[in-house]
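Q: Can I see a sequence and its folded structure?
A: Here is a first one.
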Amino acid sequence: MSEPMRDALHQGAIQITATIARCIDAGIEDGSITEQDSTTTANVVYQQWLGASLLSKLSQNTQQLEFALAATQSLLKR
């Protein structure tokens, strides 16, 4: 992978996880999400979904995405 492509993907991932963290912060503030470190949780959620997306493509079914959804809901529930 070229350095410019790696950097573009890295910057995109940073922006995505920052957006997820802001959403988690909003949920914590309104009481719909358990209080936790939003940056760490955002990274875990993003990495989990990246892996689930890849495994879903490899297996050609949605089971991994369903697992990721259940895990995300468990992680964020109040």
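Q: Show me another, different protein.
A: A second, unrelated one:
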Amino acid sequence: MLEYQLLSPEEESGELYPYRRVWRSLILEMVVLLLVAAAVFIGVQLDIIEDAYSRTGNILLALLPIGLFYVFSVRSEQRVAEPRQGLLVVLLLSVIVANGVAWTVIQEVFTPDRWLVEAGFFSRIIGYTFTLGILAEFCKYAVIRYTVWPDRFRYRLDGVAYSVPAALGYALVVNLHFLLQDEPTISAAAIRVLVNVYLHITVGALMGYFLAELLIGRVPFFWLPFGLFLASFISSLFIAFRRIAVVSGLGSRDIGGLLLVLGFTVFVLGAVAFLIDSADERTAARAGLRRLR
């Protein structure tokens, strides 16, 4: 299940890594999306691009993360010895669940626009945690849990690998509803798409770690509920701080949210990478195995 081999001093060091490099693919996808958003924003500031509502342009921006995922992740899986199966299935089901279940609950049951928008800072954190946060993370968890877990999970990074399409599917629905209903300008759309995608990928990766550790590690009985709550709480913290950031006087009400999500993403994904690497090292040490890198 794990990417370890027996220790052997005579073994050659040039072994081929049989899986897709998850972090490399994810970083490429996120960097390209950031560059596109930056190009749109700079183009607007330099009057190269008209900052107006464009239905076609906004839809293309919403679909861009899916295209990047296909190029850098799905296609890459086809070139490795042991590809992950079911990535597109997770993506499609996440879109269906997000649009058919989550969005309906948000609009007809939670209705956050009526009571959460003007709530105080701490009330907003609590409110979002137990409504939008818990709903989003549970939907992404359920898609992974009832499609690829546990059969497709071989080692801890599989949790991150499968959390990305689940997050992208959910973010696509959120972005399309915002872009088609609110009709933002092209620059606002580019930044909002990036913020939503980064947020869902980052928090989803944390939930993916908890799912993988549930299968591979030695965890207490409350591990999964705690992971679900933690992911929801962290997501709600970002939403609460984002409201402060967008009114911080940085020239554009969206730039504050962009800067916040960049720092948020680096910190949380860095923490997830550290937790996974540390857990893998401990597992290898206990078993007397050597990790393939």
